Amino acid sequence: MERNNLYPIFLKTKNLQVLIVGGGFVAEEKLTFLLKSSPDANVTIVSPMFREGTIALAKKGNVTLIEDIYKKDFIQGKHIVVATTDIPEVNVDVYKDCRAEAKLVNVADNPPYCDFYMGGIVTKGNVKVAISTNGKSPTTAKRLRQFFEEVIPENIDDLVKNLNEYRKTIKGNFEEKVEKLNEFTKSLVEKK
Ligand SMILES: C[C@@]1(CC(=O)O)c2cc3[nH]c(cc4nc(cc5[nH]c(cc(n2)[C@H]1CCC(=O)O)[C@@](C)(CC(=O)O)[C@@H]5CCC(=O)O)C(CC(=O)O)=C4CCC(=O)O)c(CCC(=O)O)c3CC(=O)O
Ligand SMILES: NC(=O)C1=CN([C@@H]2O[C@H](COP(=O)(O)OP(=O)(O)OC[C@H]3O[C@@H](n4cnc5c(N)ncnc54)[C@H](O)[C@@H]3O)[C@@H](O)[C@H]2O)C=CC1
């Protein structure tokens, strides 16, 4: 069986600068899900045109819209770049410019030109679940996201908060703490 070897990380988007190149449907979809998960993300979008929806979204977040065509200068100071234009050559230029400067880059419509994929994301308080199908079926990632949004209980965050409080009260060395926390949470994974 094929296997997903991607390594998920949870980025502190507040500390990072994201650039989106292009301002069409795909840019708006990527921006929507980025801000849904991470409303504190710092985003710049460069494009000769923007959709109404994108302009409205930008007003709600830390999003700067620049009305221009892509030039290499725009990647300066950016950590993560997502190319979404409808001109394949422009997207490949963005990819090459980013690789040359060791920046993480995603060409949304071209998986081989992605250092990372955006995923389906479920957030419940402090808990976050990210889903990827290895780029094979974004629709499956969306459906799984919807499924987990349904089945993960809203009060999962209470468990996290309670255990965080309990964790602070446990005395002893690291091994003893791990043992106590495992004992305390055993029933969560026990088969009935
Ligand atoms: C590789 C990847 C690169 C990247 O974008 O990062 C990529 C690529 C492509 N997407 C395409 C199409 C669609 N994408 C969606 C939706 C989402 N796409 C997302 C991620 C990813 N999309 C990355 C892989 C993630 C993984 O590993 O699973 C999600 C999860 C996250 C997000 O967008 O933030 C978000 C759901 C969010 C949510 O609902 O929670 C839908 C469904 C819909 O809109 O209903 C469709 C239409 C149906 C279909 O085609 O499946 C096409 C074909 C374009 C064409 O045909 O022209 C390509 C290009 C290709 O595959 O070649
Ligand atoms: N990854 C995904 O989820 C999907 C990918 N696609 C593909 O992605 C591409 C983009 O699709 P859409 O967003 O629907 O197209 P669109 O036509 O809505 O948007 C393209 C955007 O790129 C901008 N642009 C064009 N040249 C530019 C330049 N030199 N510099 C900066 N911006 C520039 C345009 O002004 C426009 O805002 C298409 O090739 C499409 O096939 C389509 C659907 C889903």
UniProtKB/TrEMBL annotation:
Keywords: NAD, Oxidoreductase, Porphyrin biosynthesis
Pathway(s) served: Porphyrin-containing compound metabolism; siroheme biosynthesis; sirohydrochlorin from precorrin-2: step 1/1
Pfam families recorded: NAD_binding_7 (PF13241), Sirohm_synth_M (PF14824)
EC number: 1.3.1.76
Record-annotated Siroheme synthase central domain positions: 125-149
Classification via Gene3D superfamilies: NAD(P)-binding Rossmann-like Domain, Siroheme synthase, domain 2
MF terms in GO: ferrochelatase activity; precorrin-2 dehydrogenase activity
Gene Ontology biological process terms in this record: siroheme biosynthetic process
Domain of life: Bacteria
Catalysis: reaction(s): precorrin-2 + NAD(+) = sirohydrochlorin + NADH + 2 H(+)
InterPro entries: Met8-like, NAD(P)-bd_dom_sf, Sirohaem_synthase_central, Sirohaem_synthase_N
Protein name: precorrin-2 dehydrogenase
Species for this entry: Polaribacter aquimarinus
Upper lineage: Bacteria, Pseudomonadati, Bacteroidota, Flavobacteriia, Flavobacteriales
